[in-house]
Design goal:
Chain lengths: 289, 247
């Protein structure tokens, strides 16, 4: 389990991570979303000890980070960190020599799955292949904690699916996985919980199903103009367009449907919101930041 | 993580061996094409002089392999996510690099002996024990001092180790040369003070046939000790910087 509490990191005047609190239980995949510069990478750096936070704690399975914790952690950065002059096989050998729990058969399986030629130098690989190799180095010891920054970046759709399946398998086997991605479809497919960051803060977090449930929109159409909604405007975000009205129901879709029905709506429907809608709603700042 | 550094130094030593072999081949061609070789003309060759010459190989290799640890700044996602303390990783790199420096010294010494044998002058070799030991202590001390200073500066300027290593040759040579320049006393005093951090200032031409004086006016053993002490301080400080720096 990954437990982040009150993590705060400042670079000069910029508050890159502001009181970040987040739990990723074992057996769970948490998608960390946010626009560029929202604080995702800073959070990852603080998690891994690459940056020293001004405040807050990070615990892995209840204990703070020590060098030995890395025997249970797999980390793949946004830009693959590889030795361009070393071959694929040498990178795998490096993983074998440095991780006590290295799983030879698993590494071989991954090399075959990603179709990586062991003799090829890392610098000669395509971006997607480099991503795959960095991932193999990160997971070859079957870590119980995975921290992945854009794990499928540059991979073709087939390989993206392979990576997501890999993550889902790992979570099924009890791993706690924190991943960031700009490809919301990937997160939607792999994650069971999500946290959205904006300006260094987590502005929305929770189980994906619960967030979806609470973010449903109720749309109603009236015969003439939209009547007085009797206080709904104060309780939730309401959008009026002509004779139609959309209410962001904040988890009270059933009550809103009933209210619209009582007000004489001609038609009422409940719209499930996609993770992308949720994300855009949450981070939308008019494009000024 | 030493695996990566082992591969790096292996590549460096292989390239260095190729250079030495090419040098030996050129020397052989030159000698074979000459009419005769009379080793009695050459006179006595002190082993300590060969040791001083071989130290140049060690020094050159030292300034190259010193870039290894600092090159890890671009791969901290791998280096710093292994289940080992960062300090232990740095000490491991140091051990590998020191091995490479010793190997380069031995290779250069063998090269020098091979060239001497080409001249048929092996019988002229004279083992001068104390001078040999002194040259080894000062030579490796100077090499490790240079190595440590590169580490220290590069730890402050991540990713620039090769540039720092290259520039260090120019800086130390110029700094040494400036002591002979006719400068106002204040500048001269500054240059003399700076030369205490110049590895080349601890070197004389070394062996028993030496007739030059080092810039640091200390006895040979004290010079050796000082070079090793500066090396130790620089290395310990740079490991501290390396292990506490934010990526």
């Amino acid at each position: 389990m990954i437990a982040i509490s009150g993590l705060t990191k400042r670079y000069g005047d910029v508050l890159a991570a502001d009181d970040v609190t987040l739990d990723v239980p074992a057996g769970s995949v948490c998608g960390l979303l946010g626009r560029n510069g929202a604080g995702k990478t800073t959070t990852f750096k603080c998690l891994l000890g690459f940056a020293r936070p001004e405040a807050g704690t990070v615990r892995f399975d209840g204990a703070p980070l020590t060098p030995l914790t890395f025997a249970r952690i797999g980390y793949a950065p946004e830009r693959p960190a590889l030795y361009n002059w070393m071959t694929v096989a040498q990178h795998v050998e490096l993983a074998r020599r440095t991780q006590p729990a290295y799983d030879e058969a698993f590494a071989r399986e991954l090399l075959a799955t990603f179709r990586l030629d062991g003799r090829k130098k890392a610098g000669k690989l395509s971006k997607g292949q480099q991503t795959a190799l960095a991932l193999i180095v990160a997971v070859a010891h079957r870590p119980s904690i995975l921290i992945l920054d854009e794990p499928a970046s540059g991979l073709d759709p087939v390989m993206q699916r392979v990576v997501l399946d890999l993550l889902i398998d790992a979570a099924t086997n009890g791993a706690a996985i924190l991943l960031s991605s700009h490809q919301i479809g990937q997160v939607d497919r792999a994650a069971d919980r999500v946290a959205i960051m904006r300006d260094g803060q987590i502005v929305l977090a929770g189980e994906l199903d619960a967030l979806r449930e609470s973010s449903r929109v109720v749309e109603a159409t009236f015969e003439r103009e939209v009547p007085d909604l009797g206080g709904l405007d104060a309780e939730m975000r309401i959008e009026r367009v002509g004779t139609s009205v959309r209410a962001h129901a904040n988890g009270r879709a059933d009550a809103v449907v009933a209210r619209f029905g009582a007000l004489g709506a001609l038609g009422v429907r409940v719209l499930d919101r996609s993770l992308e809608d949720l994300f855009l709603d949450t981070v939308d700042d008019g494009g000024t930041h | 993580m030493e695996y990566v550094e082992l591969r790096r130094v292996r590549r460096t030593l292989r390239n260095y061996a190729i250079v030495l072999l090419a040098g030996f081949a050129l020397a052989a061609i030159g000698i074979l094409s000459s009419a005769h070789s009379d080793h009695s003309v050459i006179g006595v060759i002190h082993v300590s002089d060969l040791v001083v010459g071989a130290m140049f190989g060690a020094l050159l290799t030292g300034t190259i392999v010193a870039c290894g640890l600092q090159a890890e700044w671009s791969t901290t996602a791998i280096t710093w996510t292994r289940p080992r303390p960062r300090e232990a990783i740095a000490w491991g790199y140091l051990a590998v690099d020191f091995g490479a420096i010793v190997a380069a010294f031995v290779m250069t010494l063998l090269f020098a002996l091979a060239v001497v044998s080409l001249f048929g002058a092996l019988p002229n070799l004279q083992f001068d024990g104390e001078h040999v030991l002194r040259s080894i202590v000062i030579g490796f001390g100077v090499t490790m001092m240079w190595y440590g200073l590169i580490w220290l500066v590069a730890a402050r300027l991540p990713g620039r180790a090769p540039l720092i290593a290259g520039l260090s040759w120019a800086v130390f040579l110029i700094l040494g040369g400036l002591t002979a320049a006719n400068l106002p006393w204040l500048f001269h005093a500054l240059i003399v003070a700076l030369n205490y951090l110049n590895p080349l200032a601890y070197v004389d031409s070394g062996g028993s046939s030496s007739n030059t004086h080092p810039l640091i006016a200390l006895s040979p053993w004290l010079r050796g000790l000082a070079a090793w002490a500066i090396a130790a301080v620089a290395i310990v400080a740079s490991i501290r910087l390396w292990s506490t720096r934010e990526a």
